[in-house]
Amino acid sequence: MGNQECIFCKISNNEIAAERIYENDNFFSISDANPKVEGHSLVISKRHFETILDMPSSLGTELLDCIKKTAAMLVEKHNSEGFNVVSNNFEAAGQVVKHVHFHILPRKKGDGVRVVG
Ligand code: 5GP
Ligand code: ZN
Predict the structure, then answer these.
(1) Among 8, 15, 60, 92, which is most exposed with the fewest C-beta within 10 angstroms?
(2) 0.85 exceeded by the pTM?
(3) What is the CATH number of the domain that holds 83?
(4) CA-derived radius of gyration, the chain
């Protein structure tokens, strides 16, 4: 199902292989192909929704579960002290892949990373 031209649908369907950090019924997480910081990862919905506005609110609990489990695993693995959760919605906000996703950015004190928001 989903959008045949969508790269995240292909990863979701296993048409393109990607190691999953964590997954539940409706979301999974993978490492970002072009990490902005060490451990930069993405929480992605299994079904194709373009932005948060298209996602049923009933998926909120599972979304938070996937974000929390992924972030905790990354913080442990990379000895991080914190993390940012970022979601770009629509082109004006920097969304490139038109399939809803959440960036998890592990952080350390004084790492100098600047996150817009
Ligand atoms: P955004 O749409 O929020 O601007 O960012 C899309 C993100 O997806 C980028 O950080 C980019 O590096 C990542 N990305 C794009 N294509 C792929 C891919 O095929 N595999 C993985 N793991 N990440 C990707
Ligand atoms: Zn898609």
Answers:
(1) 92
(2) yes
(3) 3.30.428.10
(4) 14
Closest to 41 (Cα-Cα) out of 29, 51, 49, 53: 29
Atom of ligand 1 nearest to the CA of 30: 22
Does the residue 115 lie in any domain? no
Q: Is residue 1 part of a domain?
A: no
Instruction: Give catalytic status of residue 48 as yes or no.
Output: no
Pocket of ligand 1 (CB under 6 A): 7, 18, 30-34, 42, 88, 94-97
CA distance 7 to 10: 5
The protein residue whose alpha carbon is closest to atom 21 in ligand 1 is 33
Ligand 1 site-directed mutation target among 29, 34, 49, most atoms within 8 Å of CB? 34
Q: What is the pLDDT of residues 88-116, one digit of tens each?
A: 999 999 999 999 999 999 999 999 999 87
